[in-house]
Design a protein that fits this description.
By secondary structure, this protein is an alpha/beta fold. The protein has four domains: 1-223, ATP-grasp fold, A domain (Dna Ligase, domain 1), CATH 3.30.1490.20; 224-322, 2-Layer Sandwich (D-amino Acid Aminotransferase, Chain A, domain 1); 361-478, Phosphohistidine domain (Glucose Oxidase, domain 1, 3-Layer(bba) Sandwich), CATH 3.50.30.10; 496-575, no CATH class. An eight-stranded mixed sheet has the order 14-21-20-16-17-18-19-15. Helix 21 crosses helix 22 (561-575). Residues 399-468 form the PEP-utilising enzyme mobile domain. This is Pyruvate,orthophosphate dikinase. Keywords: Pyruvate, Transferase.
């Protein structure tokens, strides 16, 4: 069963099919196809396409014919695995996961363990020999469904059993989780579609300039259980370090856990070395897969995996979100490895990332004698000072503050965008707070311990996320010099050769048009006809660079060359 079998709304990403369109199946399903085509072990899946999502919003309901195609897709999984959806022997459970064409990690919904009910729980208990495992699967699914499909706002995570979760959902929304797995599936697909228009997803797209109506595909995949027993677990692996870009595996592993446990930040996983000690064979297989995906993808990869009873399964691989420092290091190193040429390497680093990298750092000696208020894992480096707030709404109301949370979730993204830094009590280097902060290039310290929120809220602090520390007060900072960084020097040399305009350090004696003196408010100044050289902060920003190029300017004078060069190259690439 492949894309050529006449489905209108579904695609099954088989290894032997032609490469599917990312715009149609989303990045997640595309990565499943790629991993299968490379011979890697992937649980079978099918995908509801982005066309179905668009049709859902047009008609405010699942499009005609999709219900029947969902049945056919599930039958395909049953045939692959010898299991039955809703069955009382060898039951099939599935995950229902979002997957936009453009990666939006953590912004849309995922529902795990779908297909569970009382009868399926008993079947899982009989098959696994572990009634506690089966009960936990049922409890988790009920919570997922209640929160993401029915809209329950109560905290269901710490409730002891399925009955307690059901009671909390019923009291909050007056509805019950259906026992019929087919009804569960249809409602879950609709809920994932709706999550593409959620507040957090809209805020993320606006921040990154993505189309507001960008929908999502829905990947439906057979479950593998990292929480099955002591020989099972889940984790995230980066093929290169997403913090500093070094060519080494970077990740975490959570024994007896599911993927949601790692990204939620509620539990702090173990270093990947734990997997190497417990299962050296699985660890070696994982590293080999990461190397393969890095090489084939020609970029650092973010890989989700699950181990079930000592067997490795890959769930997703995508280009890794990374800090500005890592983006620069990876781009240069890929040139040295012969993977990229310098021109392509310049497309992997943005002007904004370099500006971020050139932000101030704590001045030498400034931290000596400063009061240390909290410490944890530096998940996204940088330095920022501000007043601490403890809700995303407060952060949005006070841009430039420091947002401190027990842990973050997709519902906090609008506050994370507004904050100058993020600090959490819980979570590790692959938690939601860490991944989103790296994508935003926001300084972030995670895992600072219980009580951090209460200890910091209302205080003015300095977050040194490079060292993983939070200090009292506002500490002095000093600027970074791009000429002293070997990677930035190499990028600058490549950019000078490719740029449509000369960018030089200020200090020239020739006639210069000064945009800062001529500008009024936020409007771009009018550049006089025939102007050859300009200076001023206004010509360091992308729109100022664009205006200078459009006016025929030949030289831009600035304190920092590389961000302007990259902005000029990007504009030239778009218009040529």
């Amino acid at each position: 069963m492949t894309a050529t079998t006449g489905f209108r709304w579904l695609v099954v990403p088989e290894a032997d099919m032609p490469e599917p369109s990312r715009e149609l199946v989303g990045g997640k399903a595309w990565s499943l196809w790629r991993m299968r085509s490379l011979g890697l072990r992937v649980p079978p899946a099918f995908v509801v396409t982005t066309k179905a999502c668009a049709a859902y919003f047009e008609g405010d309901d699942l499009p005609e014919g999709l219900a029947g195609e969902l049945t056919a897709g599930i039958r395909h999984l049953e045939d692959q695995l010898g299991r039955t959806f809703g069955g009382t022997e060898r039951p099939l459970l599935v995950s229902v996961r979002s997957g936009a064409a453009i990666s939006m990690p953590g912004m849309m919904d995922t529902i795990l363990d779908l297909g569970c009910n009382d009868e399926v729980e008993r079947a899982l208990a009989a098959e696994s020999g572990d009634p506690e495992f089966a009960a936990e699967v049922h409890r988790r699914f009920t919570g997922f469904y209640g929160r993401l499909v029915l809209g329950c706002t109560e905290d269901l995570e710490d409730l002891p059993d399925t009955a307690a979760v059901r009671a909390a959902i019923a009291e909050d929304v007056g509805e019950a989780v259906p026992a019929d797995p087919w009804e569960q599936l249809r409602a879950a697909v609709a809920a994932v579609f709706r999550s593409s228009r959620s507040r957090r997803a809209m805020a993320y797209r606006k921040h990154y300039g993505m189309p507001e109506d960008l929908g999502t595909a829905v990947t439906i995949q057979a479950m593998v259980f990292g929480n099955l027993d002591d020989d099972s677990g889940t984790g995230v692996l980066f093929s290169r370090n997403p913090v500093d870009g070094t060519r080494e595996p970077y990740g975490e592993y959570l024994p007896r856990g599911q993927g949601e446990d790692v990204v939620s930040g509620r539990v702090t996983p173990k270093p990947l070395a734990h997997l190497a000690q417990r299962w050296p064979r699985v660890h070696a297989e994982l590293l080999a897969a990461a190397e393969c995906l890095d090489r084939e993808g020609r970029d650092a990869q973010d890989i989700e995996f699950t181990v079930q009873r000592g067997e490795l399964f890959l769930l997703q691989s995508r280009p890794a979100k990374r800090t500005a420092r890592a983006a620069v290091r990876i781009a240069v190193e890929l040139v040295d490895e012969g993977v990229l040429d310098p021109a392509e390497a310049l497309t992997r680093v943005t002007a904004e990332q370099v500006r971020t990298l050139l932000r101030p750092e704590i001045a030498p000696g400034a931290a000596e004698g400063a009061k240390l208020l909290a410490s944890g894992v530096g998940a996204s480096p940088g330095v920022a000072s501000g007043v601490v707030v403890d809700t995303p709404e407060a952060a949005q109301a006070h841009p430039g503050c420091v947002l401190v949370r027990k842990s973050t979730s997709p519902d906090d993204v609008h506050g994370m965008i507004a904050a100058a830094a993020v600090v959490t009590e819980q979570g590790g280097a692959t938690s939601h707070a860490a991944v989103v902060s790296r994508a935003l290039d926001t300084p972030c310290v995670v895992g600072c311990g219980a009580g951090t929120v209460d200890a910091l809220v209302g205080r003015t602090v300095t977050v040194d996320a490079t060292a993983g520390r939070v200090y009292a007060g506002e500490l002095a900072t000093s600027a970074v010099d791009e000429r002293e960084d070997p990677d930035l020097r190499r990028l600058t040399a490549w950019a000078e050769a490719a740029s449509p305009v000369q960018v030089r350090p200020d200090g020239a004696v020739e006639p210069v048009f000064d945009g800062d003196q001529a500008g009024v408010g936020e409007a771009l100044p009018v550049i006089p006809a025939g102007t050859k050289t300009v200076r001023g902060a206004v010509f360091c920003a992308p729109d100022g660079v664009q205006a200078a190029l459009d006016a025929g300017v030949e030289v831009i004078l600035t304190a920092h060359q590389l961000p302007v060069l990259l902005a000029a190259i990007a504009h030239h690439r778009r218009t040529s």
